[in-house]
Amino acid sequence: MNNANKASAYRTNDKWLEAFILELRMQDVSGKVIGDAVASAQELLHDSGEQAYEMFGSPREYAASLALPKRQAPEWNRHGGIWPSMLGLLAFVVFNTSSTALLRGHDVMLTPVQVPLFAIPVMLVCTIPLYLGAIIRNRWILSAVLALGAFGAVFASLLTPKSPADAWLVIAPLPLVIIGGIGLIAVATWGTVMTRQEMSEHLIQDPITGKTAERRGESLTIRIVAFWMLPALSAVLFAVTMLNR
């Protein structure tokens, strides 16, 4: 993308500042520090009368040049609960596969054809570092990743063999149901607590008024509901399977 096209992406200073805030969040800078950086940029823009892109360059480059201090938080407790979402996907796969087998009165049976489908959510979790930046910049990608993993698990369940003789691997379902169920609840609870803490730390604080504001376009309630969607979907699938067995 040439400079003209980059500049056109930030036609207004507000657009540039939104992108600047996002880049600072990706660096895991606290809300108070972000507020100071934004206020400083706004003051310089007001005094100069220039456009943000012309004065500072791209938001990513300017954010990197500031080298602001990061939050003191463990790696798993960063970036809006992405890790809990992915771990919840694994628990979803384990619970729904094993609970379906349990309700139908047979073991969890796997064939070589199913393995690649069940491997999808595992690979999605293991490769998070490769597309973490894309998820943070485009939250819809996380929804797409979760949907892909859930689709793989549901489709694999439809290919369950009829008898152990046709299976490549046979596992008792009850321990997996317990592990998967506890995992779903634990991950959703963990994600809820993490999200409340993370969003509280990321509230942008105006250095002059001291007022704080949530990230634009994000809601604490929506994000917490998202963590409980997989447990809710699991409960629905469990009920449907029980009624149709």
UniProtKB/TrEMBL annotation:
Transmembrane spans: 80-103, 115-133, 140-161, 167-190, 220-243
Keywords associated with the record: Membrane, Transmembrane, Transmembrane helix
Name of the molecule in the record: DUF1129 family protein
